[in-house]
Amino acid sequence: MVTAGGPTLLGIDVLWVATLLAAVAAMAVFFAIYAAVTVRDPMAKRVKSLNERREQLKAGITASTSKKRTKLVHQNDTTDRVRKFLSSMQILQDTQVKEAQQKLAQAGIRSKDLAFVIIFSRLVLPIVLGGGAALAIYGFGYLGDWTPIKKFAIFAGATIFGYKGADIYINNLISKRTDLVRKGLPDAIDLLVICAEAGLTVDAAFARVSKELGSAYPELADEFSLTSIELGFLTERRQAFENLAYRVALDHVKGVVTTMIQTEKYGTPLASSLRVLSAEFRNDRMMRAEEKAARLPAIMTIPLILFILPTLFIVILGPAACSISDAML
Questions:
Q1: Measured over all CA atoms, what is the biggest interatomic distance in the chain, rounded to whole angstroms?
Q2: Least confident of 55-69, 175-189, 300-314
Q3: Taking Cα atoms as reference points, which of 190, 191, 216 lies closest to residue 204?
Q4: pTM: predicted TM-score of the whole model, two decimal places
Q5: Which of 61, 144, 195, 311 could bridge to 200 as Cys pair (CB 3.0-4.6 Å)?
Q6: Per DSSP, what are the bridge partners of residue 12?
């Protein structure tokens, strides 16, 4: 057990901090070993999801097997209760539901029923987190040595986080997925050009590109595979392209969708249009890389001042300071 008389630095017990850091390091090592041992193949999950979507389009139902159907009915019962509760309080709006469903699709979550859970969390989590923080601070007297302003800041922060927590999480998933799709889109368009020049149909070209990009860009391959399935089963091919733009929060994908729709409608050459889009997307990717490279010196200034320069001063001036101290003694 760490004694109170241990060495301190800026009023902090050094041994206690070292013990805490050692515990964090040990947990990080165990987590790394667990992550390395339990590596799962993401392709199996994506293939299963795409097969389920294919069966849904073929049969016109919301499940493909009895087990999945039972699970989905249970989920619908739960969401029906949530929907009825929100409707009874007159806070459920169609625009909110559609916006939440689109965000879920853009985040790669296929279940639309979770939209009601997100709306419900905006109502419940502020009460739970804010009420819990208020009860802990003002009821049980936690943080008693803090000023009233700091206490209120903790209470307000917990309440705001409860209201915006689900949206922050979903927006983070959307941002990460959009970046991954943006990186692989130029290569995917190049492959579409090759497939179009080879004489493949649009749905076959999407299926081939998704197969080739499955390892490098799994998110984009997933969207292209789903688009290929919808092109084969939906009555209107235009709807399949619009669904692709609906699921991806990226303007470049909307440009590709517009090109595909014009090609289907007017019979314009697909390869030449896609080649122009590919060149534009590659230039945009290059400009983004140059922008990040230009910001790097400014970003590295603070770490350089805080961590590198003090170490250099200690290494360079330390021996001289020790020599001067010995000479003066």
A1: 93
A2: 55-69
A3: 191
A4: 0.68
A5: 195
A6: 9
